[in-house]
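[User] At your convenience, examine this fold.
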Amino acid sequence: MLGPSSFLRPGPPPAAEGFELPCIAELGAMAWRGFGQGWHERNGGNASYRLTALEAAWVREACPAGPWEPLGALAPGVGGELFLVSATGSCFHAMEGDLAPLLGIVEVDGEGLAWRHRWGFSDGGRPTSEFTGHLLIHQARMAATDGAARVIYHAHPTSVVALSKLLPLNPRTFTRALWKAMTESVMVFPEGLGVVGCLVPGSLELARASAEQMRRFPAVIWASHGLLASGEGFDDAFGRMHAIVKAADIHLAARTANGGSDRFPNELPDATLRAIAEGLGLQLNEAFLGGEGA
C-alpha cells in the first residue's frame, strides 16, 4: 500500500528557473516536501511569504508592475508589503521544475485595499483564492510577533482533518490532546492551537475567523479542511506543521489501540508539561492547563 514516503523524490529541491530571489525556490521546496508527506491532494493547499525590505526593493527595481485589483477586504497592516504566493489551482506535486507558472509576487497598495502583479503567474494565473485570508492572517501574525513571522502555510493533513471529526472544536481541547500526545508538542506550540469550525474555503468569514485565532496562536486547525501554520521562515512553518501532524498521528494511533477511548493508561500529566516548558524557558498557555485529566 502506498504511504506518504512513496511520494518522496530523491535529489535536491526545485529551483526557480530564470529568477534569482532565493525565497522562490525555498517556497517551492516547502510545498514539494509537503506533498511528499501526503498533505496536498490535487490542488489542495497554499502558501505565502512576506518579502523582506531588501527583497521587496530588488523586485520593485527588477519587475514591472501590473494594474491594481481590489482585494475584497481591508488589510492596512500589510499595506505596501510584497508577497510571494502560490497560484490558484496550482498543484504542489508540480513544484519541482519551473516555478514561474505556480508562484507569483504581488504588491499590496499602501492602504491594504488592492494588489498588483510583480512577477510570476506566467501562464496567466492569479494568487490563491485564499489570498485575502493570507493577508489578514499575515497582519495578525505580524502584530503578534513584532513583525518576525513571514510565512503562512496551509495543507490538508489526513490525521488533523480526522481529529476534527472526533474532538470538540475548541482550542483548549485540541491543544491539550496534542500537547499530551508527545513531549515535543509543548516545545513547538507552547501558546496552543487555534480552531475554526467548518466554513466555506476562500470565504471572508473563514479569513476573518482565522485571523482572529492567529492573533493568539501560531497555527490554526480548520475543521473538516486542514491546518494553517505560521513561521518566521520556511523551515519554521514547515516544522510546526510537521510536529502538529505527528502529534495528531500519535493521538489517533493510541486511540485506535485503546479501543477508541482517549483515556490512556499512561497519559502525560500537566506537571510534566510544565517541567518541560520550564526546562526550555518557555511559557505555556496557562488557560490550557489544569482541570479534568491534569
User: Anything to note?
Assistant: The longest strand covers residues 114-120. The mean pLDDT is 90. The chain has two domains: 15-129, 150-294.
